[in-house]
TrEMBL record, chains A, B:
InterPro entries: Acyl-CoA_dh-like_C_dom, Acyl-CoA_Oxase/DH_mid-dom, Acyl-CoA_Oxase/DH_mid-dom_sf, AcylCo_DH-like_C, AcylCo_DH/oxidase_C, AcylCoA_DH/ox_N, AcylCoA_DH/ox_N_sf, AcylCoA_DH/oxidase_NM_dom_sf. This is Acyl-CoA dehydrogenase C-terminal domain-containing protein. Residues 40-158 form the Acyl-CoA dehydrogenase/oxidase N-terminal domain. The keyword Oxidoreductase applies. It comes from Luteimonas vadosa.
Length: 596, 596
């Protein structure tokens, strides 16, 4: 069994010392988001996730969700409903939602530590409330007033949950191919018919109603992605006055047997003329979908972060407790039969890899969330616009890197346990299995990479990158002569310069050969992620030095940053070489010769 | 469900065209190992593994092994015993064993394609016969004549299977800590008492007897690894005339619930004064253990290879069938609703990564096995000695790289399936779960890395590396001006030079700071693996060009080699930078500050 302790110390460091988020909240007009309130929220979130959710993690894996063929009902694992009720009672579902809707009106940024903790404690459980946020965002931005009134409050209050019904058996990424149909009815509603798969929390027993946001095509839809419309389709019908009616014509047809997140219900949803309402304009569903996706992508990134942190804590504990062999330089604990694993350099390599990627990712995630707050609440429209461009640029990096690092980190943590890591009772293998979904759903890593280099870079002439590099340059200018920081500034500046040059090189090549974008995309994304983390590590050292934290904490930040620069940042060399090698090494082999 | 087709075409290319193994076998005196015989063996192995073993792979995962608490018996999954019987009838258990023992007397090298196919078809099943080879090797080299007579023939014939009982609950890597005791009895046997864990095939229903090779300590044992002795302890007693007696005092106490290889029985074995016999000299068990370990390590490397190949085949099939989105340069199949995944550069990146690592690994593995044959059978003692040094050097590289690449390759292959890869019915997630054990057992990757840089490099002043580099240099000299090959020769020579320089640099630093060895070990191992594969890819292109194979095959080898040099070999830059950064970035942080 793995344990979990919320990393409040590092969360507070990231929020207050590095990002100065409390000052920012005040500037943005979040008057009630005082340091006292924020601290109380963090403490309560830690208590809830450690005490209520974390012990249910292995339970969920062992029991899984159960599907009843006759009723189409899904039963969640023991304890999941009671935990959800407490989550709702605590007001957590509406933490960052508007008080008008029953929310607590805290900054979006505060959703990041909450969700990191929820995911670390129990990823599978966390998927039940997760997509409500996406549904709320889509309905808020694109829904009619009566839809706001009817759907938003119960979603915010956690009486209902939401889903995103995008994928069909023959199409995931390429939604232009979808076949689900929406026929107009006389009363202004639509009859939705089709099959959706991989619907997270599509059916379950935690709440009284489930609000599906469904992509479908109207009878007059143009072909391809421009013919997609968005509909809100509740499990129990909801009329225009918000009254709950009878069961809608939709049903869970099966749940998937998966590698992990077994406590999470991944549903096949069959819509058989179900009553739904158009959200937004006809054929403009893709736009509404991106609203949902961006929220969900940042949320899935936090799954990688949460799992990484839990994996680290348990690997560290084991590395300190497990006695095995002597240090190469001689016994460190001669009174014990052997030294603990943590004396061994290669075990330290694995631990420091996890630690540096995890604490760095925490800043990547929190920074992106502060930009969402700025984009919504800054007084200056230019500042709002810049924040929006920058968070759009950072979203695919955050999603893909945090999830791939989650896979890597849970890998290393399991490896620290040796053979014991492979055994179910230690719980490390569950973390690795659970992590594996995160690079697949809400857009695979390859899709994030294309989004970054295509829509977020090529299509904007690198607007997002320029904003980020300007921040990096400003930091470098400020700290280049500061004792204790300067050692990071020079290599960081070099990487920033190289990042810009690589970007120009790819975009130039892509004007002639469109495949150059796709061929560079994966390496460009990770290159970007590693340089971004180098920036956050340099800033972390600077912030730690400037703080009144204990020397051990400052040492840990400095030495972890040094490790990161010495042993992780060189991954950029591999990525730079790969993307500079161009598309031909990928495209030359004919498809039929792959097994010649 | 995944499918499997034995890659006979590439196996034959590697064996005959690249390694010219058939000529070598003849030179070594394997007169009956003619091309016809070898081809017939390959064809039969392909048939057996494709038809009998492959369909049982998912069955084994679903059913797992069952343990009966009352009897201590273990029941293997449905079909496993029938398949084992056919394996035995086919003479596969003795393929490379001496005819004196009932074996077929084929070269050790031929065990590699057999085991690659077995592992690809059904890794969990393959673990039942696997460790018999280790037991045979240990008994052959260290056992008394009566032990040869009593144990070897039934092991070779597959009537019995073997195990390696090393690990205990508190010690795996550090066997000096073990607590299992051996008390001398009046009749020259020993009473073995203790608990061993993680015993692969420790108990099962496939054969009539199980021969445990058990590490234990004699009453007068000096402390630490120098006090370990090896004992042979059968499940049913065997007297000095080879007669089977009653049940020995040992019992399976439990089987582990694991992440994967669920069809393989991983047993807790309790020895309660069980009758055993000393193998080799008292307190010299570690030496005998290394005999077993080296065989087993090369065998586990083949598990990574087999899984990689099966993963590739299925990912390739899916990438050709699944229609999703259009190529960035415009529709390639305008008559279809979308293009197949394989048109997309990033999907090709994943496929070519698997293909290049897998075909390269096949040569790494086969080459190592040819060296075992040379070390045993070459007429010239100097040649035998050199082969032994070289295979010792290559063994940790082969084990660690092939298994880590197995993890990576099954990762990419699953990723090619998108969300479907996470669903059990597609079978890709089983391959990923099964692969995860291979970097843990028979010495973790970290232990292989220490073995390579310590015992196999520092302790021998780089003797193995020098032999390998001499081969590389000879190849470079021969081909540096050859059209179609020269493009690989220059970068290969650079890497060979850098490899030697990095080695000198580490060994020099390690004379003052012993931790430098451990700190460089992981990156040194992978650096070595990637350069070794660069050599095998250059040689593959040369061999393909010189052959009369179809142009499509030659194209595939050349373009895959170009991909490897452009996009995989640059990983050496990251590893070189990391190992050159020295030990301080790993050792500076005090153990207690890892969660400061």
């Amino acid at each position: 069994m793995t344990t979990y302790h919320a990393p409040l110390n590092d969360i507070r460091f990231a929020l207050y010392d590095v990002l100065r988020a409390d000052e920012m909240f005040s500037r943005l007009g979040y008057e009630h988001a005082t340091r006292d309130v924020l601290d109380a929220v963090l403490d309560e979130a830690a208590r809830f996730t450690e005490v209520v959710l974390a012990p249910l993690n292995a339970v969920g894996d062992r029991h899984g969700c159960r599907y009843d063929k006759d009723s189409g009902d899904v039963t969640t694992p023991p304890g999941f409903k009671a935990a959800f009720d407490r989550f709702v009672e605590g007001g957590w579902t509406g933490l960052t939602a508007s008080p008008d809707l029953g929310g607590q009106g805290l900054p979006h940024t505060m959703g990041v530590p909450l969700n990191e903790m929820v995911n670390a404690a129990n990823l599978a459980w966390g998927n039940f409330p997760l997509l409500s946020h996406s549904a709320i965002d889509a309905l808020t931005q694109h829904g009619e007033p009566w839809q706001h009134d009817a759907f938003l409050k119960p979603l915010v209050e956690g009486r209902w949950t939401g889903t995103m019904c995008l994928t069909e058996p023959h199409c995931g990424t390429d939604l232009g191919l979808l076949r689900t149909r929406a026929e107009p009815a006389d009363d202004g509603s639509y009859a939705i018919t089709g099959t959706k798969i991989f619907i997270t929390a599509g059916e379950h027993d935690l709440v009284e109603n489930i609000v599906h946001l469904v992509l479908a095509k109207l009878p007059d839809a143009p072909p391809g992605p421009k013919g997609i419309s968005l509909f809100v389709v509740p499990k129990f019908k909801v009329d225009r006055d918000g009254n709950l009616g009878g069961r809608n014509a939709l049903r869970c047809g099966a749940i998937e047997h998966k590698m992990g997140i077994k406590g999470s219900a991944t549903c096949v949803m069959n819509f058989d003329g179900a009553q739904g309402y158009l959200v937004g304009q006809p054929h403009r569903g893709l736009q509404a979908m991106f609203t949902m996706m961006n929220t969900a992508r940042l949320g899935v990134g936090l799954q990688g972060l949460g799992l990484s942190d839990r994996a680290y804590q348990n690997a560290l504990r084991y590395a300190r407790e497990r006695l095995q062999s002597r240090a190469l330089s001689g016994a460190k604990f001669p009174d014990k039969p052997a030294d603990p694993l943590i004396v061994h350099p290669d075990v330290r390599r694995m631990l420091l890899t996890i630690k540096s990627l995890t604490e760095g990712s925490r800043l990547l995630a929190l920074h992106a969330a502060t930009l969402v707050d700025v984009a919504e609440h800054a007084a200056d429209p230019g500042e709002r616009e810049r924040a929006d461009v920058l968070v759009s640029f950072l979203t695919p990096i955050a999603k893909a890197c945090q999830t791939e690092w989650g896979v890597e980190n849970t890998y290393h943590a399991l490896q620290c346990f040796g053979g014991h890591g492979y055994i179910a009772e230690h719980g490390m293998e569950q973390l690795a299995r659970d992590a594996r979904i995160t690079t697949l759903y809400e857009g695979t890593t390859g899709i994030q990479a294309l989004d970054l280099i295509g829509r977020k870079t090529a299509a904007t002439q690198g607007a997002g990158l320029k904003l980020f590099l300007a921040e990096v340059e400003a930091f470098c200018d400020e700290y280049e002569h500061r004792a204790g920081i300067a050692e990071f500034v020079a290599p960081l500046r070099d990487k920033a310069t190289e990042w810009a040059a690589l970007t120009r090189s790819i975009l130039t090549r892509a004007t002639d050969v469109p495949e150059e974008l796709g061929a560079a995309s994966y390496d460009y994304l990770f290159y970007s992620g590693y340089v971004a983390l180098a920036y956050w590590w340099a800033r972390s050292v600077a912030a730690a030095e400037a703080s009144d934290r204990p020397e051990a904490f400052k040492d840990a930040k400095r030495e972890t940053a040094r490790f990161y620069y010495a042993r992780i940042l060189p991954r950029t060399r591999m990525h730079a070489a790969a993307m500079e090698s161009g598309a031909s090494s990928l495209m030359a082999l004919p498809a039929e010769a792959f097994d010649a």
